[in-house]
Design brief:
single chain, 485 residues, mainly alpha, 23 helices
């Protein structure tokens, strides 16, 4: 294993991440409501930690192997989540414990959106901005940004990209060079963030809220500056803007690249994509079911209000954003559980959404259909196709392996949470919310996670990282084969 080279890269990335402490310090200076000192101290401390890792190993430059790439990705998220907790530990407002600080930091960076903080309106603007910014950085994956500069450091980035990029097919690149791919992703990400912030501002948000909520929306994170989340604004226009940009962000970013990379928009790329068609169908069916149930049970006074709530909450939960206009946990009949289960599907591969990804669910469905056909015609040969492309058995095996590992991690976290004393509904929904990077759950975690035990928070923190790294990237480190030379 290339330990010194890995340590050098981690040190550089920590030093790079330390720059993220400066914008919140600037926000504190502008608004003058405190918090700036904690971020300046965190910047210096993070930079020193990065230099300690980098300086003794600065001459150890070599091409990364696949195993080193996996280890760097896992270490990077663990280390950065820990570094990200430093400002929260040093801040007087909010006054968080070690467990709460780490939970909030990892929740932000993994775009889970689960919070332990109550009274967001009383926090300094610097802290609020920092929470949004961490989600924005984590949404696309800070690794992808780092991949864009790794060639300048004498390190190839393909190994990191394969380990970080969500989805079952990881060898396709949008541009010939991996650095150019990472840059293209970030250009798209920046453009969508700017458009979302502008739309929020035009819909009635002030500039600070528009920028902060655009960060959390494009990252499909779900953090807000208010305890009532998007419901604070009580605006159908803002709800619609949020839903539209969540849908866009839950699409495969390579589709956005394909559609707008050539001269003029080529919207046919969206129509041809099998995964996107299934994703939109799922959204349409989910909204229809939720609206029909809310309307028939007279949960809202008017059909328009029911449709607004159904559209916003269905998109928010199913894309794993977790924004809210009200507590969906109080909705009638089966709706709360239906929405929680929808988060298991999540967004498309190559998006900022969580969950298992639509493409995997589609492939599981197609594989199930193939097995039913084989029962009727045992000697027939059936291939699984996405559009006109036949998929190899290797891809199908990988999807089944992922599903098995996902289910195993879910069961282990669920049982562990129940062992801490949480009731069945709370444990189930908290595990689903954190493993799917959703955020809000049911029961004791419907509003926030501040009241559960520290042990439960550490368990859920692990679930967040598993979900963000799509299970395999983390679990492979626990296999004896990985560590054999």
């Amino acid at each position: 294993m290339q330990y010194r080279n890995i340590t050098r890269i981690i040190g550089l990335l920590i030093a790079l991440f330390s720059i993220a402490m400066l914008p919140p310090a600037l926000v504190a200076l502008i608004y003058g409501d405190g918090g700036g000192t904690a971020f300046l101290r965190s910047f210096v401390l993070s930079l020193l930690i990065g230099m300690v890792f980098w300086y003794p190993n600065r001459h150890h430059k070599e091409e990364l192997r696949n195993r080193s790439g996996f280890l760097i990705v896992v270490l990077f998220w663990v280390v950065l989540g820990s570094i990200g907790a430093i400002p929260l530990l040093l801040s007087a407002n909010p006054d968080l414990s070690v467990a709460d600080s780490f939970f909030e930091s990892f929740s932000a960076l993994t775009t889970t959106g689960a919070t332990v903080i109550v009274g967001l309106e009383q926090l300094p603007k610097a802290i609020l901005f920092y929470r949004h910014m961490l989600q924005w950085l984590g949404g696309m994956g800070i690794i992808v940004l780092a991949v864009a500069i790794l060639p300048l450091l004498g390190v190839g980035g393909m190994q990191l990209y394969r380990a970080e990029t969500p989805g079952p097919v990881k060898d396709s690149k949008m541009t010939p060079r991996i650095a150019e791919t990472a840059k293209a992703l970030w250009y798209i990400y920046l453009a969508l963030t700017g458009l979302c912030a502008s739309a929020y501002w035009l819909a009635g948000m002030n500039l600070f809220d528009a920028i902060g909520h655009s960060f959390s929306t494009i990252a499909i994170g779900g953090f807000s500056s208010y305890d009532a989340s998007i419901g604070h604004f009580d605006s159908s226009a803002i709800n619609l803007v949020c839903a539209i940009f969540l849908l866009i962000s839950a699409m495969n970013f390579s589709l956005h690249f394909t559609a707008f990379s050539s001269r003029g928009a080529n919207l046919k790329a969206y129509l041809k994509d099998t995964e996107l068609r299934f994703f939109l169908l799922i959204q349409l069916v989910l909204v229809a079911i939720v609206f029909a149930t809310l309307y028939n049970t007279a949960t809202f006074d008017t059909p328009e209000a029911a449709l607004d709530a159904a559209l916003f909450q269905s998109v928010s939960i199913s894309t794993t954003a977790g924004f809210g206009t009200e507590s969906f946990a109080s909705w009638p009949l089966f709706l709360p559980m239906l929405l929680i289960f929808s988060s298991f599907i999540g967004g498309c591969a190559g998006s900022t959404g969580g969950g298992m990804k639509v493409i995997r669910v589609v492939l599981l469905f197609l594989q199930g259909s193939r097995e039913l056909k084989r029962l009727v015609h045992p000697k027939a040969i059936y291939s699984i196709r996405l559009g006109s492309k036949a998929l190899s058995n290797r891809v199908i095996d990988a999807v089944w392996g992922f599903f098995s590992a996902y289910a195993l991690v879910f069961v282990i976290c669920l049982v562990a949470l129940m062992a801490t004393g949480l009731d069945d509904i709370t444990a189930f929904s908290a595990t689903a919310a954190c493993l799917n990077n959703l955020g809000p759950g049911l029961g004791e975690v419907a509003a926030h996670y501040g009241d559960i035990s520290d042990t439960a928070k550490w368990i859920l923190l692990v679930a967040m990282v598993c979900g963000r790294l799509e299970v395999f990237t983390l679990l492979v480190l626990f296999t004896p084969t990985f560590w054999k030379s």
